[in-house]
Specification:
Number of helices: 4
Helix content: over 70%
Largest sheet: none
Radius of gyration: 21 Å
Structural class: mainly alpha
Order of helices and strands: HHHH
Distance between the termini: 78 Å
């Protein structure tokens, strides 16, 4: 009886997490800033890892946890690559800002 209740709890929690992931997906598409989109992608990755972990507990299979760990690593690498690509695209603007700062630093010396 208790296992059945836990099963329903896990299924309900996974559905709620899937709904949250969908909301974050909308935030990814509609976010006004790049940082909003990156945080939404990272949150979706975390939610998917939680769902995979809950599924492993529900199915009583330990190998599914390994899949969750691999997905967590892929999600982290994805966020790092996206941030790096964004910084490279805006690096030229930052370089121009740094060039403008150098004469002021030399004048203060």
């Amino acid at each position: 009886m208790a296992e059945k209740i836990y099963g329903y709890f896990f299924i309900g929690a996974m559905c709620l997490l899937a709904l949250c992931a969908f909301v974050y997906l909308l935030r990814t598409m509609l976010g006004p800033h790049f940082a909003d989109r990156i945080l939404a992608v990272n949150s979706i990755s975390t939610i998917v890892v939680l769902i995979i972990s809950m599924l492993a507990i529900l199915q009583d299979e330990s190998y599914i946890i390994d899949i969750g760990i691999i997905y967590a690593l892929l999600g982290f690498i994805t966020v790092v690559i996206l941030c790096k690509a964004y910084l490279r695209s805006h690096k030229k603007e930052r370089a121009d800002d740094l060039k403008n700062l150098k004469p002021e630093e030399e004048a203060n010396d």
